[in-house]
Amino acid sequence: MIHVLFVCLGNICRSPMAEGVFRNVLKQENLSSRVSVDSAATSSWHIGSPPHKGTLSILKKYNISAEGLVGRQLTKEDFEKFDYIIGMDESNVKNIFEITGKPQQPKIIRLLDLTDHNKDVPDPYYTGDFEETYQLVTEGCQALLEKILKEHRLT
Ligand code: 4NP
């Protein structure tokens, strides 16, 4: 099993959105039994919380399940458990380095560095634009799928 973890600041907007989107991609590709998905926060602010209502409504709009999405905080142990630890922005990546104590590891990646955008996923908690974030998260997830297929020879 290949283990993927999406990480953002609160684990209520961007990373649970990515978890839902990527789980849906895996389902469509018949890879659910090969790749697992989870998400976590760098902060402790929303432990045990459901996703933000903006994330829930965008997932609903695109017919993607939000089942099982609950806020939790990243731990040091997550570094060993996961094969890909995907931050939504540069500050998430810095915080992942700090929490795991593992700086500059190739498994720790900023999502849109996998695409031609090379930028942070905008935080809809502040921008209010969940559609923009959804489109970028979806592009990032597609690029992540291609990377995993290539690296694990799943095609
Ligand atoms: P997220 O967005 O990191 O995409 O989940 C945020 C969620 C909550 C807060 C900030 C960002 N907050 O300040 O509570």
Structure commentary:
With 155 residues, the protein is an alpha/beta fold. It has 6 helices and 4 strands, in the order E-H-E-H-H-E-H-E-H-H. Helix 4 links the parallel strand 3 and strand 4. The longest helix has 22 residues. It is globular and about 35 Å long. The site of 4-nitrophenyl phosphate has 10 residues, from loops.
Superfamily (CATH H level) name: Response regulator
Radius of gyration: 14 Å
Could you name the CATH class? Answer: Alpha Beta
| Average residue pLDDT | 97
- In CATH, the topology is named Rossmann fold
Bound molecules: 4-nitrophenyl phosphate
Poorly predicted sequence stretches spanning 5 or more consecutive residues: none
Largest sheet: 4 strands, parallel
Helix fraction, binned, reads 40-55%
Strand order of the largest sheet: 2-1-3-4
Distance between the termini: 15 Å
CATH architecture: 3-Layer(aba) Sandwich
Q: Note the total helix count.
A: 6
Which properties best describe this structure?
single chain; 155 residues; alpha/beta; Rossmann fold; 6 helices; 42% helix; globular; binds 4-nitrophenyl phosphate
Blueprint of the fold:
Elements: E1 2-8, H1 14-28, E2 35-41, H2 53-61, H3 78-81, E3 84-87, H4 90-100, E4 108-110, H5 124-127, H6 130-151
Parallel strand pairs: 1-2, 1-3, 3-4
Bound molecules: 4-nitrophenyl phosphate.
